[in-house]
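Annex B. Sample input.
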Amino acid sequence: MWTEIYGLAGSTLATLGRKNLFLIVKVETNAVVVRPLETAVDRRIPRKEIEGAYDELRLRGTMTLAQIRSFSEMNPVYVAAMLSQILGVTYVNKPKIQLSVLVNR
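Annex B, continued. Sample output.
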């Protein structure tokens, strides 16, 4: 999974709900640095927050943005957007943002 996150470096993604654009500035061994285009202020998201949310997603099969917040209190929208880029992960926006994953991956 982290290999796929590394592949996002330099990409511009959109948050799943409001479609706010952000840049994946760099992917480090222990964190991802994102830059929302609206504020241009870098945010560092620890790897453990992203991996914790992904592990829980794989365990549950589905996960809402509110549930992702329990792993990444300050950056759940960015974590959700990154996770949605991983092979086998899909999402819906309505009635609420929810990610799903193929369990056999």
